[in-house]
Amino acid sequence: MPSSPSLATGPAPASPPRTVRDRRADLIVTLVALALAVWVTSGLWRDPNVRTITVNSSDQALFEWLLAFGGHAVTHGENPLFTYLINVPDGVNLAVNTTITVYAVVFAPLTYLIGPPATFLVILTLNLLATALAWYWLLSRHLVRSHLAAAVGALFIAYSPGMVSHANAHLNWTAGWLVPLLIWRLFALRRPGHWLRDGMILGVLIAVAFSIAAEGLFFTALALGVFVAIWALHPANRGEARAALPNFLRGLGVTAVVAGVLLSYPLWLHFAGPQRFHGTGFDPVIHSEDIAAFAAFPRRSLAGEVGLGTSLAPNPTEENSFFGIPLLVLTVVCFVALWRRADPGRRAILWALGVLAVIFTVLSFGPVAKIDGRRTDLPMPFDLLGQLPVVNAALPARLALVVAPVIGVLLAYTLDQLRAAPPRHRSAELAWSVGFVVALLPLLPTPLLTDEREPIPRFITSGTWREYVSPDGVLTPLPLTVDIYPDGQRWQAYALSHRQGEFAIPGGFFLGPGGPDGRGRIGPVPRTLSALMDQAGRTGMVPIVTDGTIREVQSDLRHWRIETVVLADQVHGAKLAVDEEALRRTGTALFGEPQRVDDVWLWRIPPADR
């Protein structure tokens, strides 16, 4: 804090009005948040139609397809929550997938104007920026007085290791701006006399959140439920909680009715519609947080850049904790310092935040504990909770994402307290400054890794495909479309967003039925043709083809009603190289000699075989 001016230097210039200082601080935070958002996504901005996220190109292709399909469905009067354009002939229930319907509709004009890849990049960048600004607004306007404190807390939350990790193509999880809005509107229900309006606003917000990030909404609801219960049961707050309870419950009732009406069809599809399933296609043991991961550094950070990152996450998109030891130590020190100087009301908040962080940390460990990559036999609470409906569809590792906002709020509270009453000794002030720098600087994010992706063939971009596929007919690329071979959905997204018309594809990247014990699985159940092409593309070896093989493949062609089979010169394989020559030779063994059309090899399937 600056000292008072001496008489020798004259009086200090008048401070600008508070509103001017607030706007100046808001502008600075906005610029910093925007710079960080562009910095993290900078690899894609070089050319969004050519670049792809290295570690998760399959999810990027999926979200680009969702943007193209959602916009097409709405503008053509089709169902945005169920489609037969992929996974022919069964279709896909998108209500049990990540539909991002709100984004698809709102950004449909942009998708038609600049294409799905560029729209994907715009939304990803805006998600990061909006998350920082929403948290900054909540902290600075409702929780702390210092704009610096609010900025540090908000920027940490928005660019925490988990958020940067999910910036590897997850448009749902990077929509963290929804969380502070949900918190704000939930606590607004306490206001007397406004329960009807506030309940309606929260109901609409919940419907929007469900349509963008249903799993994130579920985690937020769980976290807020735990926080409110612990806060209300604290002796310091029981009187206030009892007084606010009637109004709060009336508002929640209105919220439930409004959200229930708006989400009635999506919820019916989710729980009772066709192609539904229970559970998920992911193993909760694999997708759980390693205990050691909380003290580790993420790969896309300054610490990771100098070699301190680890591979304790199941994949680079799931580094949901990875706070590092310095930040964990700083968090504990902040909690203790705040607790020592807190009044009973503030202690109730701190107690609720602390318990919340511990609960979600333990739950993120999944069914059994893992320590430094080694699975133990120690059962965890999620082993029981994971059997419950809805909970069994969640990935336990992602529960750790709740911890980052708790840490961000504690950092903001501490800085706010330090700004209001600075330490009496410069050594203490220096120690706090060094502590924040040492804890946060190693976590400064670095840009996402990107690569060039294989271009969409001219056969698709020129519209030539329409000469070989009947209206609403079925085309398939080789290999058939699944998560690791996303070309089919990339081509379809291009055709839909450029108003070329529709063609359907077998398979696709989606969650659907067919897993063990009635659970979900990623993509369709494999058939002979898809298995043969996968084997050829992976190994570079042509499978042995017999008369029996031919009959099974012809059965697959009839099942899928395939009219045209297409092999591009360059096939995009997520996480693996694809041998196009082996695919061509395998296709020739199964379908005969192909014809060359534009820049693809093409086989037309006779009506008798389909």
From TrEMBL:
UniProt keyword annotation of Nucleotide-binding present: no
**Which InterPro entries does this entry report, sorted A to Z?**
DUF6311
What residues does the DUF6311 domain cover?
80-383
Keywords assigned? Membrane, Transmembrane, Transmembrane helix
The domain of life is: Bacteria
Q: Report if keyword Acetylation is assigned.
A: no
Q: Which residues cross the membrane?
A: 27-45, 94-114, 120-139, 146-164, 195-212, 248-268, 321-339, 348-369, 389-415, 427-444
What name has this protein been given in UniProt?
DUF2079 domain-containing protein
The species this protein was found in:
Micromonospora inaquosa
